[in-house]
Amino acid sequence: MSSIGSRSVGAEEKRERLLDVAEAVFCRLGHSRTTIAELAAAAGVSRPTVYAYFPSKEDVFRALADRVRDEFLRLQERVDTSSPARTADEAVRAFFAAYTRHHGMLVVIAHQALVDPAMRELRDEIVARPERRNARFLERLVADGRAAPAVPPADVSRAVTGMVARAAELAVDHPEQADRLGGELVALYLRMAGIDDDRG
Amino acid sequence: MSSIGSRSVGAEEKRERLLDVAEAVFCRLGHSRTTIAELAAAAGVSRPTVYAYFPSKEDVFRALADRVRDEFLRLQERVDTSSPARTADEAVRAFFAAYTRHHGMLVVIAHQALVDPAMRELRDEIVARPERRNARFLERLVADGRAAPAVPPADVSRAVTGMVARAAELAVDHPEQADRLGGELVALYLRMAGIDDDRG
Amino acid sequence: MSSIGSRSVGAEEKRERLLDVAEAVFCRLGHSRTTIAELAAAAGVSRPTVYAYFPSKEDVFRALADRVRDEFLRLQERVDTSSPARTADEAVRAFFAAYTRHHGMLVVIAHQALVDPAMRELRDEIVARPERRNARFLERLVADGRAAPAVPPADVSRAVTGMVARAAELAVDHPEQADRLGGELVALYLRMAGIDDDRG
Amino acid sequence: MSSIGSRSVGAEEKRERLLDVAEAVFCRLGHSRTTIAELAAAAGVSRPTVYAYFPSKEDVFRALADRVRDEFLRLQERVDTSSPARTADEAVRAFFAAYTRHHGMLVVIAHQALVDPAMRELRDEIVARPERRNARFLERLVADGRAAPAVPPADVSRAVTGMVARAAELAVDHPEQADRLGGELVALYLRMAGIDDDRG
DNA sequence: AATGAATGAGGGTTCATTCAT
DNA sequence: TATGAATGAACCCTCATTCAT
């Protein structure tokens, strides 16, 4: 019926769809209440079918977490670098959008990180890596005299991650405010970093 | 049942000790992996004894969450108000300290909030209430011409919550940096809020 | 369906090959751990293909057991009867060789006999029938004055079955001793049966 | 109701009773068809109760197998040694009785030995150790001129194990013949070993 | 107040088997 | 004929919870 895909669709695609479904379920139910039965039902298949695509529940979760991380890693690749303010604008907005989109998973990942060192690392790749990258970006700007942050770049960088995370929480419940929130985040960032706003 | 005599006091104390133990266990194992057996073992009692103090595992968790929230609520009561900068300094540092101290529980609470509306509310009391209070504080300062935030006070306020949360994560792993981090948080906040630093 | 033409012959051959593979797998993994998946993998085919040749896993096992039994039944047909000692020699060695060759299957069959009356019967055909036949053989020899067993022929007969079984166990792990063991078995049998060794 | 024991009984005793029940079930159903549910039902308890005494189904089986082995090991301790024939008589009969009593378990152990090296060792302790002991016993007799086996002592010894095993199979179905079978086994053994029958 | 003992409910996982292609 | 895909039925095991002592 409403199974996860017709026969003609490749297995890889079905796996991907299963992950989509799984993300929704994990975000709705959290890690422990997400059962294979629930995943299967949400995907319109039977329990054993889930095992045709993933060896275990934990593997579903790991694959999901990996996918989220990969999306975050990809974010950093395409950013307009025509001016510091533009770079900041795009980077912050993109990070904010991704954070909002995957807010639930990030909460679950943080929870699992309490228990699983692998999740701790994965979370680090999502959160701390962009921070380090951003810190280096600021340091370069400072060296060029184009930024004058109030506190060390690393702290600005960390602060912005936190700000984005918190704003994302709000954006999840009030998507209509997402745009405005993005704007405020950028504004705050520019001010914290002491970057001249030369956008448009 | 038992009067407020020594017996009762002992019971209240034991309950409190049980909660201390429980907080440690919940932070180490997360919500689902925390079993009554583990709580009992960590407290050096048998499983049924836990039920003498709490009706269910969920009640242990709720009591714990309540305790954390209460501590956050109490934070706001004693703040030096001799100057805006001093107020900000104390409030931010206190919030940051509490956030660091209860970081694990806050992660678990966030996770449970995905599932349990009551936890959503509780989390709101911990995070959003101080934000609103802070926003009002800023608005008053703005009205008095003593603050000139870069973005609306509500956004500054939300931003600082996020910053603190992220800094707390770091402070958990590197307690030796807690002081410095607290200072940076205050500095950033003052700058974001456009408050003159008239401290010492 | 398919005539006895080449197709059918191919099918029969494949079935036989499948049984060969299955014997190896059942002996390696025992009855319960042998899965259709394992059989299919060992045969280099997909799971459903196994079902093209056998209606069920139990049928694979039954066919296998039947094949083993048939081999044992055939043993008794060609035995040199030129002298009692020669008869004994050939019969014991042949039985011992077959027992060694199919030791694993015989263990599995014994195990299944605990549960399945049909396997009990089959095992009886493999083990008890030769015993009865042997007992009659001895009785005839006794009547002719050519044997003087220490105990009733039926007991001698049963004893030799047991001896062979135990020797086979050893021969499985130490094939190089098979010949010597065969010799000892014959010697013991002759002595137990009180048959003059007029061989060679 | 008909649970495995009243509260007053020690846990050790209950464990022992559970093992008694388990032996019956394993012998009736074989290894794989024996489920925890069946064990629990046979013992008159619920499934989780079984886990209060054993960590897993495999542990139940191992404990059972250990118990059987221990009983076999104890057999060898008390044997009348007033004369070779008496020693042989007692040893063979005792081994035969134990083999009959635990026939089912020995079949299951043999089956598991296909898969589990630990079971292979355990089986060796049950079967091969008495053989080696017996072989040494015969060697001593030979040295003293009190035995003249038809084949090397080790082979006699192995043969008798096999004979006993096969006789036990029969005795399981026909307990009324056990005594007679025991006698025949002893007679055969004495003859094979070339021991003078000086028993009363 | 405290606990040893027991269990109902439920979740993860496996596997023989079927079916559409 | 052969198979990729899917599933019903079980089974092992865990855990929150209860109860008699």
Automatic annotation (TrEMBL), chains A, B, C, D:
Q: Which residues form the HTH tetR-type domain?
A: 12-72
What InterPro entries does the annotation carry?
Answer: Homeodomain-like_sf, HTH-type_TetR-like_transc_reg, HTH_TetR, Tet_transcr_reg_TetR-rel_C_sf
DNA-binding region, residue intervals: 35-54
| Record flagged with keyword DNA-binding | yes
Keywords assigned: DNA-binding
Q: What is the protein's given name? A: AcrR family transcriptional regulator
Give the species: Pseudonocardia parietis
